[in-house]
Amino acid sequence: MRETGCFALKGNIIYPDSIDQIRYVPKGYLICENGKVMGVYNNLPEGYLNIRVTDYGDRLIIPGLTDLHIHGPQYAFRGLSMDLELIDWLNENTFPEEARYSDLEYAKKAYTIFVNDLKNSATTRACIFGTIHEEATVLLMELLEATGLKCLVGKVNMDRNSPDYLCESSAWSAKSTRRWLKDALKKYKNVAPIITPRFLPTCSEALLKELAALSEEYMCPVQSHLSENIAEVKWVRELCKEAKSYSDAYDRFGLFGGKVPTVMAHCVYITEEEIELMKKNQVFVAHCPESNTNLSSGIAPVRKFLEEKVPVGLGSDVAAGSSNSIFKAMAAAIQVSKLRWRLVDSDLKPLTIEEAFYMGTKGGGAFFGKVGSFLEGYEFDAVIIDDSSLAHPQPLNLKQRLERVIYLSDDRHICDKYVSGSRIEIRDTVKDLRQLM
Ligand SMILES: [Zn+2]
Fold it and tell me: How many A from CA of 63 to the centre of ligand 1?
């Protein structure tokens, strides 16, 4: 059963107000009107006294989380070969696994697992890479559409510097992307296409130009990778000699924001000039701390992005990140920021809980519009968390409970989930819990 119209959820409401402030409303009412947040109140206001209220008791109600960077086909090998570095990891795991998605039967098996786990997580919005395969990408979109999650999904483009078994001809890559895009724009309510050059080295100049033209023609957002690793930055310098930087290389092809929303994963090695360009074009950073640790890529200067007002959210980057949890990404973001401060640059202070929570909610959510907060007019994306099984002997306030959820919880603690005011059917055990309430 789905709920729309006007209703309220009652519980301990927690949401980011700004980058460094979280609001805590104990036993409050969160009102939804036509899929949008109407407001958060201590008592139901006049005119809303008769609306349906679902009482979640002492549970926590937070905005849905946004994953700005995840690879659907890589979910199958999450947790494997985590002792390799980027290039070996790509050649040994990623490319051979992604090639399997030419087989639709395999794709169905793998994507069903991926989509089901995403549905049961605290994520309500995600930017997802598929593979080069058009049919498998359509299948992924159909499976996601049925969940009610709001996702942007990309058919990946690769026409050079890729293994033979995972390399398209330039003409085919452009043609099939256009066909897929036109079709996908008409078909879905919850999911939408996003232009997805894998990264600059795997796309020829002609293809990059074609993708930029497609993006402009259909006002379609763009996602890719940027400055993940030192050898890659050097490689791009050789491939694109006229560009001033890696960011400038994308910008020269018209794939670096300005006209359409654009998100770049990693951004570990970024110059001051690139930061200026990102700010000007409002390019989003998908900060992927676990991935950057697992593949020894480095530590992105996130505090700098926040100070300079470059939009930043978090990415799980499965399978370079082992988990799809954006709570884990929040914790990892704080952890790596401390190492960066200690080992690389003592001028950039470590991140706070408020900042990490902001990036996983309102910061990344902004890529999807007014998403990731309970301020009036925001999309009604909410996750209800039951933290009662995280035992403790001492009294805890709401901030401490949120911190423990970030560091200690997993999907079993999620007991309900809404996207744009519609309830998402999560795992069966939750239904039993709901009957008990
Ligand atoms: Zn990635």
Answer: 25
The Å distance, Cα 2 to ligand 1 centre, comes to 33
3-class SS at 399?
A: helix
Q: How far is the CA of 84 from the centre of ligand 1 (A)?
A: 15
DSSP letters, 206-259, are HHHHHHHHHHHHHT--EEEEES-SHHHHHHHHHHTTT-SSHHHHHHHTT-SSSS
Q: In angstroms, what is the span from residue 288 Cα to ligand 1's centroid?
A: 9
Residue at token pair 């933290």:
387
Q: How far is the CA of 314 from the centre of ligand 1 (A)?
A: 12
What is the distance in A from the centroid of ligand 1 to the CA of 167?
17
The rounded Å distance from CA 93 to ligand 1 centre is 13
pTM above 0.90, yes or no: yes
C-alpha angle with apex 81: 77 to 85, nearest 5 degrees?
A: 120
337 C-alpha vs ligand 1 centroid, how far in Å?
20
HSE-CB for 265 with a 13 A CA cutoff: 31
Cα-to-centroid distance, 142 and ligand 1 (Å): 22
Q: Which two tokens stand for residue 264?
A: 């770049």
Digitized pLDDT (tens) for each residue of the chain, 437 residues in all: 334 589 999 999 999 999 999 999 999 999 999 999 999 999 999 999 999 999 999 999 999 999 999 999 999 999 999 999 888 899 999 999 999 999 999 999 999 999 999 999 999 999 999 999 999 999 999 999 999 999 999 999 999 999 999 999 999 999 999 999 999 999 999 999 999 999 999 999 999 999 999 999 999 999 999 999 999 999 999 999 999 999 999 999 999 999 999 999 999 999 999 999 999 999 999 999 999 999 999 999 999 999 999 999 999 999 999 999 999 999 999 999 999 999 999 999 999 999 999 999 999 999 999 999 999 999 999 999 999 999 999 999 999 999 999 999 999 999 999 999 999 999 754 444 455 44
Q: How far is the CA of 228 from the centre of ligand 1 (A)?
A: 9
Query: Distance, CA 78 to ligand 1 centroid (Å)?
Result: 13
Distance 57 CA to ligand 1 centre (A): 39
Separation CA 88–CA 64 (nearest Å): 35
Q: How far is the CA of 285 from the centre of ligand 1 (A)?
A: 12
